From TrEMBL:
The keyword Hydrolase applies. The keyword Hydrolase applies. InterPro entries: His_Pase_superF_clade-1, His_PPase_superfam, Phosphoglycerate_Mutase. Keywords: Hydrolase. Gene3D superfamilies: Phosphoglycerate mutase-like. This is Histidine phosphatase family protein. Coiled coil: none annotated.
Length: 222
């Protein structure tokens, strides 16, 4: 079956505002972040969602609740929170200033910024380099990250409530949405621009295909 997945980046948090890495840690939504969620809710108010998923972080849950409460269609689905949809885990670098963390990851390889790592080595290297730099080795490697994310999409594909053509709400995270775009988007998307808080990215998901071919990008960062 083909599912239409409306992936929303959660509203702005205080860690977003302070430019700090935020993976599995939680920071509350700012007032702007609540507005981000409400704006996304208005944008998606007429979409008849048959299922709704988010990570088990409070920033994703609060964003999801505000979007679903604004939905004007007759049947609002029950929200499913699951750890498979969490943002990348940054391990020792959770909560640290982003520029300093990416310098620590990239400098041993001659790259001083996140964008430079991506340009020279690919997006997967940002995860592997950060794990190398983590003194506890807790940060997710690229392989560990994708194994978990693929598990989340398997949950959606196996949802018995869904039928061909249904719409699914997914509250996601900035780096995860960017990672999905790098993996599945064709040409014509400016991936130097991170998805904004409260923005909507739409994927069509063919549940009959293996994950590496399952997603087609419909729109990005709207």
């Amino acid at each position: 079956m083909l599912l239409h997945i409306h992936a929303v980046r959660h509203g702005q948090t205080y860690f977003n505002r302070y430019n700090r890495l935020q993976g599995w840690t939680n920071a509350p939504l700012t007032e702007d972040g609540l507005d981000d969620a409400d704006r996304a809710g208005r944008k998606l108010a007429g979409v008849p969602f048959r299922a709704a998923y988010c990570s088990d972080t409070t920033r994703a849950q609060e964003t999801a609740r505000r979007i679903l409460s604004a939905n004007l269609t007759p049947d609002r689905p029950e929200l499913v929170s699951d750890m498979h949809f969490r943002e990348q885990f940054y391990g020792y670098f959770e909560g640290q200033d982003m520029s300093l963390a990416w310098w620590a990851a990239g400098a041993p390889h001659g790259a001083k910024t996140y964008n430079e790592i991506v340009e020279r080595f690919g997006l997967g290297a940002t995860r592997d380099f950060l794990k190398e730099a983590d003194p506890f080795s807790d940060a997710e490697s690229d392989a560990e990250y994708w194994e978990r994310i693929e598990g989340g999409f398997a949950l959606i594909a196996g949802d018995g409530r869904l039928a061909d053509g249904d719409h699914v709400l997914l509250i996601s995270h900035g780096n995860t949405l960017l990672s999905l775009m790098h993996r599945f988007a064709g040409k014509g998307y400016d991936l130097s621009v991170r998805p904004a808080n409260g923005s909507v990215t739409v994927f069509d998901m063919d549940t009959d295909l293996p994950f590496e071919r399952a997603l087609t990008v419909v729109s990005y960062n709207q």
